[in-house]
Amino acid sequence: MTAAPRKIIHVDMDAFYASVEQRDDPSLRGRPVVVAWRGPRSVVCAASYEARRFGVRSAMPAVRAERLCPQAVFVPPDFPRYKAVSRQVREIFARHTDLIEPLSLDEAYLDVTVTRSGLPSATATAQAIRAAIREETGLTASAGVAPNKFLAKIASDWNKPDGLFVIRPQQAEAFLTPLPVARLPGVGKVMERRLAELGITTVGELRACGAAELERRFGRWGLRLHELSRGLDDSPVVTERPTMQLSSEDTFEHDLLLAELEPHIRRLAARTWEHYEDERRRDPHRVARTVVLKLKTSDFRILSRSLTPPERPRSAQELAGIACALRERVDLPPRTRYRLAGVGLSGFADEARLEAQRDLFGGG
Q1: Are 144 and 154 in contact, with CB atoms under 8 Å apart?
Q2: What pLDDT was estimated at residue 355?
Q3: Among this protein's residues, is 351 annotated catalytic?
Q4: What is the dihedral of CA 16, 117, 151, 161, to 10 degrees?
């Protein structure tokens, strides 16, 4: 006996920040919009589809975006407004299921194996959600429907923007067969290169390699790759639970030196602080004490540095300052280049208990 397949929807808002700006300012509609502050230290938060045609992408330096698309309209980000729209979308999700796993302000997984709306299928549910988003927010969303999370995420990107794509359980292997191995979660450039050295460039070729051979070469990760190549993934949709860590990270368009990371760290710290403020609104008694800086080198080595200061960070600026200072604890050669950075908050605890401990030990 095997359990019936889950019914998972991945909903992804289309060019979310830029679309909100175009919705709220009719003069921006049909024009290339870049959500970013101008200046040499700024990076792109989002780009409209009109801007993307020129090669503009999120996390790109704003000066490069301006070179690629001189006619672009730069709009400074307004995160409180984006969060308000995100809450509207979340309320639409909640009409259909309690099993919601937000990934960011603009995307989420929904488990609709059983729904509260009584619609006859996951496809009908996805259609209803997209229609409600359009009617109530004036924005569009793309959705993927599949028997698991990783297939649903691939599917949501298939007919973007404003699209819907369904992968049924019996279609999964055939759908995956021609795709490049890089479409599988966890297959980055290094693994893609290692697989290419074995003559494996597509998911079908990976599947044909066999589980035993992949395990011999890559250990448990090889078995996981073989499962993914068959369209198998048992990861559940994880609803909200007590937060242990909040973080934001970005992979850069080009690898950077440690000294060049400050504007990116500050941007990531601001994003993490936004998430932290949301968390504090849900549970004002839990506070974070530890700041974490995560880095990934150009050769995919991951390192992290953390600090629990005597006084917990109380603003995005304090968080950014501590995260930037943590670079001094990185002891790799100065010419080392980094492809990713992340800023996190951890060490969550009850604020009243922390204050009691401080009083007990003479901390203030």
Answers
A1: yes
A2: 56
A3: no
A4: -30
Of 127, 144, 167, which marks where a domain is finished? 167
Inter-CA distances, 93 with 9, 14, 89, 100, 128, Å: 10, 16, 6, 7, 10
CA–centroid distance for 38 within its chain = 24
The residue among 11, 61, 10 whose CA lies nearest residue 34 is 61
Could you say which of 229, 255, 277 is where a domain stops?
229
Q: What CA–CA distance (Å, rounded) separates 195 from 229?
A: 13
Tokens of 224: 């996981």
- pTM exceeding the 0.85 threshold for the entire prediction: no
Q: Which of 21, 66, 101, 107 is catalytic?
A: 107
Same domain, 120 and 199: no
pLDDT profile of the chain (364 residues), mean per 10:
76 96 96 87 88 91 92 92 93 94 91 90 96 96 96 94 94 94 86 90 93 88 91 86 80 90 95 88 84 92 91 92 95 93 89 55 46
Buried b / exposed e over 252-268, threshold 16 CB at 10 Å, is beebbebeebebbbbbb
Angle at alpha carbon of residue 171, lines to 170 and 173, rounded to 5°: 100
Torsion sign across C-alpha atoms 298, 303, 304, 305: negative
Please give the full DSSP string across 60-94, using - where no structure is assigned.
Answer: SBHHHHHHH-TTPEEE---HHHHHHHHHHHHHHHH
Give the 3-state secondary structure of 187-246. CCHHHHHHHHHCCCCEHHHHHHHCHHHHHHHHCHHHHHHHHHHCCCCCCCCCCCCCCCEE
Is 49 part of any domain?
Answer: yes
Angle at 326 between CA 324 and CA 332, to 5 degrees: 110
Residue 318: give the domain boundaries. 245-360
Residues 98 and 139 placed together within one structural domain of the fold = yes
* Residue 28 pLDDT: 96
3-state helix, strand, coil in the chain (%, to 5): 45, 20, 35
Residue 235: inside a domain, yes or no?
no
Is 140 part of any domain? yes
Rounded CA separation 58/16 (Å): 11
Check which CATH number belongs to the domain holding 64 and give it: 3.30.70.270
pLDDT of residue 349: 80
DSSP-based three-state secondary structure for 277: helix
